[in-house]
TrEMBL record:
One of its GO terms (molecular function) is methyltransferase activity. This is Class I SAM-dependent methyltransferase. Keywords: Methyltransferase, Transferase. Pfam families: Methyltransf_25 (PF13649). GO terms for biological process: antibiotic biosynthetic process; methylation.
């Protein structure tokens, strides 16, 4: 069955940038999925934040990786003992994720209009996926994260940090993407009802261009 790349809860006014992102990732999905997927093996600090998130959410209920691409982070979270599924805008990414990890559930959808009931999740991971949200749209994304998370649920964001500069669009290889000052991203999530638990900044390693930001947050009551 072919799935639509725009979920039913999509509102007409914001469909254009989502369509562009979905088409761009559909076009490169096969190449992207064939890239070496050893990122997490190489980066102990990245694994550490995922391990902390897992410790906070394990056994408490379902967790979603939003913007899961071909699924390696979803699989890593499963290996950490979480009841996790993946959601992505790109139907081709979802097909590849299902082929690579047939034991896991992956669905097509947009993280700003999820086909989930209010309070259904205990955790959300967005691993380099909110980077593609136009900055003015990000409050809508965080409002949706708050809607689907139960009170006390956890949110983990990974993104490219702007290293002292303002929110900046950069030349991402696939489609429009933005680097964020970590304080500004934390404040925006705070306005949506998330309290910061902690943060991790990692300097770029060989072959990387930008500082990596990680924010671990908890949904308020
Ligand atoms: C840089 S990739 C990261 C993939 C995966 N998290 C990983 O680290 O391997 C960003 C992914 O986010 C997805 N994405 C972007 N905007 C999205 C949205 N609004 N809803 C769901 N997925 C989205 C893209 O289709 C793409 O697969």
């Amino acid at each position: 069955m072919t799935e639509p790349s725009t979920p039913a809860r999509r509102s007409a006014h914001d469909a254009a940038h989502l369509r562009t992102t979905a088409d761009a990732y559909d076009a490169i999905a096969t190449v992207y999925a064939e890239l070496p997927r050893d990122d997490l093996a190489t980066f102990p600090l990245d694994r550490a934040v995922l391990a902390a998130f897992a410790e906070l959410t394990r056994g408490a209920g379902p967790v979603a990786e939003l913007g899961c691409g071909p699924g390696p982070v979803t699989a890593h979270l499963r290996d950490l003992g979480l009841d996790v599924f993946g959601v992505d805008l790109s139907p081709v990414m979802i097909r590849l994720a299902r082929e690579a990890y047939p034991d896991l559930r992956f669905t097509v959808g947009s993280m700003d209009a999820l086909d989930l009931a209010g309070g259904e999740l205990v955790g959300i991971v967005s691993w380099y996926s909110v980077i593609h949200a136009p900055p003015k749209e990000l409050p809508t994304y965080f409002a949706e994260f708050r809607r689907v998370l139960a009170p006390g649920g956890h949110l983990l964001l990974a993104f490219f940090e702007s290293e002292g500069g303002p929110v900046t669009e950069f030349d991402h290889k696939v489609t429009a993407a933005y680097r964020w000052p970590i304080d500004e991203l934390a404040a925006l999530a705070g306005e949506a009802g998330f309290a910061e638990i902690g943060r991790m900044l990692r300097e770029p390693c060989e072959g990387e261009r930008f500082r990596r930001g990680h924010l671990l947050m908890r949904r308020g009551a």
